[in-house]
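Quick note —
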Amino acid sequence: MKEDMMKLAQQEIEEALEAVEALEQNIDKDGFSKEDLKSKFIKLNEKVTELEALLKSQGII
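Predicted structure written out below.
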């Protein structure tokens, strides 16, 4: 995998981890709503899908 693709993959992973952290923070809040959870989960799903597409394009998976 080329260096620029490695950096892109690393960025996608970091963004996915940030989405997980946002989910955790929202779950811990008292004013947590199902809509908040849904939007955070959708963002996480998008990041994982983007990472999967990148890895597939590089022949890794």
